[in-house]
Amino acid sequence: MLRGAIPGPPANPKMPLNPLLTLQLGRALKRLRLAAGYTTQAALAARLDGHGEDSVQKAETGYQLPSDDLVLKWLDACNATGLDRELVADLVEHSREGSSGVRAFFEKYATAEQKAAFLRIWGLQLIPGPLQTREYAEALFQIGGLDEDEIVEQTDLRMKRQAKVDGPDAAHITALIYESALHLLVGTPQIMAAQLERLLELSRRRNLVIQVVPDTGTYFPGLDGPFAIASGPDIADTVDVVAVEDHVQDDLAAAARIIALFEEIRSYARNAAESRAVMTEALHTWNSQQQAPAGASPATATAAAITA
């Protein structure tokens, strides 16, 4: 059962699907902690690299379903027997049944995205999620106030979305990115430089077009908010919109309006070659700022991190 990974999909720690089983799992983990001689939660947390006392407390009380990484490190730190590992694995698996880990409001779009043949994405303040590096995504979730386990879970989910970029069932993607997103510091200059390198690499793929929309300092319709559109022969056009319309919907009329808006925004964009030149310039800027202080606006990150 539980040797290198826990069976089943990752859970949404905010919404345990089976609260009773999650509580039973917490009691089992607490029993292991005490049997191993860790008399306080803090004592065990000190042995769990990447996890704090808060994560231990939430797991033991059943408030939050722990991540795979936390459970595995917990079992190792407590020298759990094979039987204990099997028991815990069963509790984790049954606690997760039916749970995808995807935020409830985003689930409809995430399902459509997996089936999509075409993705059209407008990134306003942030680099769009399917194009993000792991470090960029982690920094966003950290700034957004997620705890350690949520950061791991949501970053893993975001990385899985990149199968639509370079996986065997990759979609054709057109991504429009507002120029200011290339210059908004998220995390560190090193993270930003790596993110720009990733964009430049992606921009040369046959299934992906990246165009930068210049920041002219004047209003145009794209400033109303970022969005994404998933399309394909097996799904209705499904839109994920932060501020332009309701958050996620597959209403035909609404989707048609957002598709028209996407094409209007695209009319402002630079062509692919010019966009690569702008991204290269931004990369040089971040490379020259390697000692700049880390950070990004918490308001910006919190508003858009989950759905970027």
What can be said about this structure in brief?
The chain has helices spanning 19-35, 41-45, 53-61, 68-77, 82-96, 107-115, 134-143, 148-161, 163-166, 189-202, 252-266, 272-287, 298-304; strands at residues 118-123, 172-178, 208-213, 227-232, 235-241, 248-249. The protein is an alpha/beta fold and 308 residues long.
Describe this structure in words.
- There is one protein chain.
- The chain has helices spanning 19-35, 41-45, 53-61, 68-77, 82-96, 107-115, 134-143, 148-161, 163-166, 189-202, 252-266, 272-287, 298-304, and strands at residues 118-123, 172-178, 208-213, 227-232, 235-241, 248-249.
- The two termini are 35 Å apart.
- The model is unreliable at 1-16 and 294-306 (pLDDT under 50).
- Helix 10 (189-202) links the parallel strand 2 (172-178) and strand 3.
- A 6-stranded mixed beta sheet has the order 3-2-1-4-5-6, sandwiched between helices.
- Helix 7 (134-143) crosses helix 8 (148-161).
- It folds into 2 domains: 19-96, 434 Repressor (Amino-terminal Domain) (Orthogonal Bundle); 104-304, Endonuclease, Chain A (2-Layer Sandwich), CATH 3.30.870.
- The longest helix has 17 residues, at 19-35.
- It contains 13 helices and 6 strands.
- It has 308 residues and is of the alpha/beta class.
